[in-house]
Design a protein that fits this description.
alpha+beta; Serine Threonine Protein Phosphatase 5, Tetratricopeptide repeat; 5 domains; elongated; 859 residues; 4-stranded antiparallel beta sheet
Length: 859
């Protein structure tokens, strides 16, 4: 249809208000005037877009015949032109052009197992490429389909019954007698050449019946007591009804009927384009409102509409949704969650079902609300209220009937879109299971107030809600949120606060929710949000980062003075790489936490790089701790062996960085395709629920912890074995001090505290998570203290470089003394030297490597 008006580029944008107005005006004009066409299918008009050339509007209609009356169409087109002219459009003289009808094949019959050729002629006026589709899906050339002559000819090889639309032929045969003999019925294709094929004929045998058939019905037929049969739904509906023969009559036992109008919309949504969303959502809203009684009483219809809404919300992620579209969307939801639908939702939420329709509905509402246009507007339905505003804070009270829910969002950094959706009847929809009783719906737990959805595109430290209590007789209130990962209500991060009454108000509770990232998520599959954990995490990580920077500065200052032999050199190389890896990993952790706090669900595009580098550098930390342990083991067990510095360096860097890189790359390659690399909710870290990618960090880390623990035990055993019988009682006490010092030094350097991660993996106990977060977020501080500051040689070198030798004179004296008061513990091993030369060398190596001293006793 051609309109004489200057072409406006805004008509290329389906989200533009002018585009949507034109669609409604054109569609209304066509619908109203095509009703006179006898073969016109009502509700089939579809505006497919606008093109330049003045304005050319492309539209489609459907007819009930392949040969409509052209005279009727000409008359209808003239009426459409008059209608458009009356509302301000200038319609061209020759405004209407019908698309070319082309016969795809000249064959009158197609036979199974033969090739079928279809030809499509591209009109001269069309510029572009063409494609072939089957059931709405574009097909590619393969063993089944082949193209020729630039794609205009399609050849379908070995056509079977699967290549045609589904359908069946039903033969009704009435049983005239209750006592009849066996009878065989055969249905076969007419063409004799095809009767030999597997699907060419079908046979059914009706056996002799020797009993009275009490259930008789002209449509359903006859049956004996207890028989089940399936019949079609009423006119205007699709699906089946199951009947049972009970007490001499057919009784309906199960109904799976869906309104035809809903099924038609469901078919449209299968191939839904973003620009068609406004029209489809309006059609769905109209159909739902007009048929609300039938819809709310049918669980299968409710489920079908929810599936439609989910697909619409998914398609809408590429466009902006304006207020009218959202209003139509919520009108549909309002019908589904009304009190009339309680029985349907009880059936859908039965624990024997696995479709999770209620969760899908809530997820669809949240998903489409992410795409709302900026601006301030309110949508009010009977049981749903939506407030959309752009502000740097929010404070409001629900205007819904029997609801005074208050929402308070404190000051945020800058004005941002805020969406608040209040539901007063969502207790009809969402099951009342929580984490502890997820598989048990027969509990005393129930939703006792409104449900609120809050969407903010910034980090919020705290949100406060004041809810009306629906049932005053219920006690022990909890503040919960719906955890989509766990498919249950979860109270993590939310707590009940005393409500400050205003005047004579009663029956309210206040909830405060604060979702934060905990350090324990590095090993735990549970997202345990708690303020104490958050404070421990961020304070501990900050202290660690500062400590690691100081550690690297000290190592730089004293490097030449403390790396004069191979053992000392490798020890300090390990310390430096442990510090660097942990420092970078902690920086990535902070970045990931910031991303997770800003948006939920987490953005795969923004989160994936942070997760990759976090994964790599935390693994590098563990592998360098492994190298430190193996170096000590090598010097302890093989005291007379000597490996070159170059060889040790090569092995260390291959293991320290090569192994983590290989594991990190394999993890990305095996999980990034299905988008299961990072978590979907709460944190920016490796996925657990879908792909178990978290194991790519947990297994290597805990394996290294186990190896390092064995090394520590071997070292302690060597120290104790060499000291037995060689000392008096005072010396034995001194040996225990050296051993304790050895354990204190090696535990953080070997990463043994990460062993608490096993507890966080199997338990939600807050104490375990607190201990894990406290010890491991402060690991950088422990490395600075036990790996650097307690090393007497480092203190001497540092003091020498800073001209502060007077502060360390006593330390130097103790370091060179052979007396029993040596703080490094060497005096103990020097006395052993007099008894056994080999033992002295071995024990001295243990003490020096574990305590951080670079001085070895000459044997």
């Amino acid at each position: 249809m051609k309109i004489e008006e200057d072409f406006d580029t805004s008509l290329n944008d389906p989200n533009n208000e002018k585009y949507q107005r034109y669609v409604k005006q054109f569609q209304s004009a066509i619908e109203d005037n095509y009703n006179t066409v006898s073969n016109f299918k009502k509700g089939s008009v579809k505006i497919t877009g606008f093109r330049p050339g003045s304005i050319i509007a492309d539209y489609e209609i459907k007819t009930t015949t392949n040969s409509p009356n052209n005279a009727e169409f000409v008359e209808a087109n003239n009426k459409v032109a008059n209608t458009l002219t009356s509302i301000g459009f200038t319609v061209a003289g020759n405004a209407f052009a019908e698309s070319e009808n082309v016969t795809l094949s000249t064959a009158t019959k197609w036979y199974p197992l033969q090739d079928m050729t279809l030809k499509c002629k591209i009109p001269d006026s069309v510029d572009g490429t063409m494609s072939w589709t089957v059931n709405g899906q574009v097909i590619l050339q393969n063993g089944k389909y082949s193209f020729s002559e630039g794609g205009t000819i399609l050849t379908v090889k070995s056509v079977t019954e699967k290549d045609k639309d589904k359908g069946c032929i039903t033969l009704k045969h009435k049983i005239r007698s209750a006592d009849c003999s066996s009878e065989t019925f055969t249905c076969q294709l007419k063409i004799s050449e095809l009767q030999g094929l597997s699907y060419g004929r079908s046979t059914v045998i009706i056996n002799k019946v020797n009993q009275v058939l009490p259930c008789k019905n002209e449509t359903l037929g006859d049956g004996k007591e207890g028989d089940l049969l399936t019949g079609p739904c009423e006119k205007g509906k699709e699906g089946t009804i199951t009947y049972k023969c009970t007490s001499g009559r057919w009784t309906e036992t199960d109904r799976n009927c869906i309104l035809q109008v809903i099924k038609d919309i469901e078919k449209q949504v299968e191939v839904l384009a973003p620009q068609d969303i406004p029209v489809v959502v309006a059609q769905l809203s109209t159909a739902t409102v007009q048929n609300n009684q039938e819809i709310t009483q049918s669980s299968v219809t409710v489920q079908t509409i929810v599936e439609i809404l989910v697909k619409i919300a998914g398609t809408a992620q590429t466009i902006i949704i304006d207020a009218p579209v959202m209003k139509s969307f919520l009108q549909t939801v309002d019908i589904l969650v009304s009190d009339f639908a309680v029985n349907s939702w009880n059936n859908l939420n039965n624990n024997s079902r696995t479709d999770n329709t209620s969760t899908a509905l809530l997820s669809a509402v949240e998903s489409i609300s992410d795409r709302l246009t900026d601006g301030n507007f309110t949508i009010n339905e009977k049981s749903i209220e939506l407030n959309r505003t752009v502000a740097d804070r929010y404070s409001g009270i629900s205007n819904l009937t029997n609801s005074t829910t208050e929402i308070l969002i404190p000051q945020i950094s800058k004005p941002t879109p805020i969406t608040i959706i209040v539901f007063t009847t969502l207790d009809n929809v969402l099951p009342t299971r929580n984490i502890s009783n997820k598989n048990d719906s027969n509990t005393d737990v129930r939703i006792n107030g409104d449900v609120v959805v809050v969407k903010v595109n910034q980090t919020i430290n705290n949100i406060s809600f004041a809810f009306d209590i629906t049932d005053q007789s219920l006690g022990n209130p909890q503040c919960v949120f719906w955890n989509f990962k766990l498919d249950a209500w979860d109270s993590t991060g939310c707590e009940v606060k005393p409500y400050i009454r205003k005047g004579n108000e009663t029956g309210k509770i206040t909830c405060e929710c604060n979702h934060t990232t905990s350090f324990s998520i590095l090993m735990s599959p549970f997202s345990l949000d708690n303020k104490a954990l958050a404070y421990i995490t961020y304070i501990g990580v900050a202290i660690s980062m500062a400590s690691l920077i100081l550690c690297l500065i000290i190592e730089t200052i004293v490097w030449k003075n403390t790396t004069r032999n191979d053992t000392s050199y490798m020890r300090h190389v390990s310390i430096v790489n442990i510090a660097v890896s942990l420092l970078i990993a902690n920086i990535c952790f902070i970045i990931g936490a910031a991303i997770a706090e800003q948006e939920q669900p987490t953005s795969v595009g923004r989160c994936s790089p942070a997760v990759f580098f976090m994964h790599f550098f935390y693994l590098a930390l563990f592998f360098w701790m492994l190298i430190s342990a193996l170096l000590l083991f090598y010097r302890t067990v093989m005291v007379l062996s000597q490996m070159s510095r170059a060889k040790m360096m090569a092995i260390a860097f291959i293991v320290g960085y090569g192994a983590p890189l290989l594991i990190a790359v394999i993890t990305v390659a095996s999980t990034a395709g299905p988008k299961n690399y990072v978590t979907k909710q709460d944190a920016c870290w490796l996925n657990w629920l879908e792909s178990k990618a978290l194991l790519a960090f947990v297994i290597p880390a805990l394996t290294i912890v186990a190896i390092n623990l064995v090394v520590l035990i071997v070292v302690l055993y060597k120290m104790l074995r060499r000291g037995v019988g060689a000392t008096t009682q005072p010396d034995e006490k001194h040996a225990l001090v050296v051993i304790a010092r050895c354990v204190a030094i090696l535990t953080p350097i070997f990463g043994l505290t990460w062993g608490f991660g096993i507890g966080t993996m199997v338990s939600r106990d807050l104490g375990i998570h607190v201990v894990f977060a406290l010890l491991n977020s402060l690991q950088g501080f422990f490395i600075l203290v036990f790996g650097t500051l307690l090393d007497s040689k480092i203190r001497e070198a540092l003091a020498g470089r800073l001209s502060l030798r007077n502060l360390t004179s006593s330390n130097r004296t103790r370091s060179t003394s052979a007396g029993p008061s040596s703080s490094s513990g060497l005096g103990f091993f020097q006395r052993i030297r007099r008894r056994n030369v080999y033992n002295v060398s071995e024990a001295s190596a243990i003490s020096a490597a574990s305590s951080g001293s670079d001085t070895y006793v000459n044997a």
